[in-house]
Design brief:
The complex is a heterodimer of chains A (309) and B (282). Chain A has 309 residues and is an alpha/beta fold. Chain A contains nine helices and ten strands. In chain B, helix 4 packs antiparallel against helix 5, helix 6 packs across helix 7 and helix 7 runs antiparallel to helix 9. Classes of the chains: A alpha/beta (309), B mainly alpha (282).
């Protein structure tokens, strides 16, 4: 509940919310310009300023541009969802924030500091879970606290593990190995491992892309609940429109490769979005945002087909 | 707040930890596959005996099963087999240890360092592909007919599969595990000790497994062609020259048992070392 309050203070939806008011003229609300101004009232935690990224192919002496001139800001405490067609560079965007990929030009800043590599202030949840298969649930979570950077004193580790496993609903599975767990439960371990470091920023790269639809809904609901408690800033990649709307405070729509920001949509729906009566998900506003996003993305999907014969 | 949240899949996803309960089956159930193997082998040797006794095949090519077992028994009783078996087995084990001691670190280095890989790989691949037996004349020239030659050929046979597997292990480490290592603060040493090496362990074991198979071949090549006058290969060679087909078959059975025993021992090691890999029970 508290989260809804901070969210409202951070982005008074009036300015950006107007973009979604006119779904027919999608270009009108284009945010690709180089004006990463902070949200009114909220301090910008993450900033991308005209960031361009690509991958070099030494054999062909070419460089594939994955993202071009991306500018955006993420306010502290915000849940930013990124959607786009597959291969559009959204993973490159999150990898830049994580510090795996350096921009070719432009820059990515966290708290005003240029990102040069991974840091203890950012934790990541991976689509394929990326758990160490030879470690139990407990030891996988411990992994995040025992390395040189971000080391947590040994006596504090056990307490934190118990707390975080409670939070994600994995009590009783401490001694299980990942291969003994279902996909949804493996991802709970992935989330627990990220949360146990108490990061300021949680980066989630299609975290529920590999779990079944039923589990996916339940995980979304629990993620909303968890984030309401821990109040992390979240950057969340997905290719599911519904997932983006139900979780995001704002949605960034990325266009086809080379990825640029097509539009940023303010999701002015109340929280919690997961309620027993499904009021939010069945609201007219939800449907409106969804059809707008759907129009944008099917545009992009068709573009992709045309571009690659 | 939590009251308002739905828990639609509480039953499907949040299962309880694995539970076991007793089931009603015959006391014999756990031993069934062993029993089948025993019956199977007994029938095999019985059939063998019957075919041999029918006297349709020249007993020089196909001796009776009972003759084979009695030749084995006599060989062990009069001390002609045991010293040769001990010679072969100890050579093989020493050769494998040396091969592992060289192959594992070099393979890991080649996996970890592009420069080392670029420099070493032409030689490693040439040696991996070259039929080992081609080296025997050269090794006899250099090392003579002694044990050094036999041991060298075992090492040369086993070291390259071990090396190549270790290299493959390091190179195929799941990239998202490496990213997880970086996100969660592992430095270079921690990345190797906590992510790369544990990931590579099953590859190392697979390499040693191949090394055993290749080393066994190398052992026999050395003993058959090296003219050292010892080892199971020498027993085979001598039995053949003396038209002692019962001993010849007996030594072959011994070799098969030895090979199967070593491979099974490695499977136990593998299951212990990498329980997360589901190893099909072939």
């Amino acid at each position: 509940m508290a989260r809804t309050g901070t969210h409202a203070a951070a982005h008074p939806g009036s300015q950006l919310g107007s973009q979604t008011g006119s779904p027919t003229e999608s270009q009108a609300g284009n945010q690709t310009g180089s004006h990463p101004e902070p949200q009114a009232g909220g301090e910008p935690l993450i900033e991308a300023i005209n960031a361009t990224a690509g991958y070099e192919n030494l054999r062909e002496r070419t460089r594939l541009i994955a993202l071009r001139d991306v500018s955006l800001t993420v306010a502290k405490g915000e849940f930013l969802a990124i959607v786009g067609p597959s291969g559009c560079g959204k993973t490159t965007l999150i990898n830049m924030i994580a510090g795996f990929v350096r921009p070719i030009s432009g820059s990515v800043l966290v708290r005003g500091q240029e990102v040069t590599g991974p840091g203890a202030d950012r934790a990541m949840v991976f689509q394929d879970y990326a758990l160490l298969p030879w470690r139990t649930v407990e030891k996988n979570v411990r992994f995040a606290m025992e390395n040189r950077r971000g080391r947590v004193p040994a006596q504090e580790q056990g307490e934190r593990i118990a707390k975080v496993l409670d939070l994600v609903g994995l009590r009783g599975f401490e001694k299980s190995f990942p291969h003994e767990l279902s996909g949804g439960m493996r991802q709970r371990v992935g989330i627990a491992r990220a949360l146990v470091t108490e990061p300021e920023i949680l980066l989630m790269d299609e975290p529920f892309g590999a779990v079944d639809a039923m589990t996916r809904e339940a995980m979304q609901a629990e993620l909303e609940k968890i984030i309401a408690q821990t109040r992390q800033t979240v950057v969340f990649i997905t290719h599911s429109i519904d997932e983006a709307i139900t979780l995001g405070d704002r949605i960034v729509v990325v266009s086809n490769r080379p990825g640029t920001i097509r539009e940023i949509i303010d999701v002015d729906l109340p929280r919690p979005r997961f309620t027993s009566d499904d009021a939010v998900k069945s609201s007219a506003r939800f449907a409106e945002i969804r059809s707008h996003l759907w129009a944008l993305l099917s545009d992009e999907a068709l573009g992709a087909k045309g571009g690659q014969p | 707040m939590s009251d308002t949240l739905p828990r639609p899949t509480a039953a499907t996803d949040r299962s309880t930890p694995a539970q076991t309960e007793a089931i009603q089956v015959s006391w014999f159930a756990p031993f069934r596959s062993t029993a089948i193997t025993v019956v199977n082998l007994s029938l095999f040797f019985l059939l063998w005996e019957l075919v041999a006794r029918a006297d349709v095949i020249n007993p020089l090519f196909f001796p009776k099963a009972t003759d084979v077992f009695s030749a084995l028994y006599n060989g062990f009783a009069d001390g002609t087999i045991l010293p040769q078996l001990a010679h072969s087995l100890s050579n093989l084990l020493i050769g494998l240890v040396i091969a592992a001691a060289i192959g594992i670190p070099v393979g890991l280095l080649m996996g970890a360092s592009r420069v080392a890989d670029l420099i070493l790989s032409p030689y490693v691949w040439a040696m991996t592909s070259l039929p080992r037996v081609a080296l025997v004349p050269l090794l006899i020239l250099i090392l003579g007919f002694g044990n050094a030659m036999q041991l060298t050929i075992i090492v040369l046979s086993a070291v390259f599969p071990i090396m190549v597997n270790c290299m493959a292990g390091v190179k195929t480490v799941d990239p998202s595990l490496l990213r997880a290592g970086r996100v969660f603060g592992a430095d270079r040493i921690q990345m190797y000790s906590k992510v790369i090496l544990p990931f590579t362990l099953p590859f190392v074991i697979a390499g040693v497994n191949q090394g055993i198979a290749r080393g066994l071949v190398g052992m026999l090549i050395g003993e058959l062609l090296g003219g050292g006058g010892n080892g199971l290969g020498f027993l085979l060679d001598r039995a053949s020259q003396q038209f002692d087909s019962a001993t010849l078959y007996g030594v072959l059975i011994l070799l098969a048992v030895m090979a199967v025993g070593l491979v099974q021992a490695m499977r136990v090691v593998e299951r212990r070392a990498a329980p997360w890999r589901s190893i099909p029970n072939v």
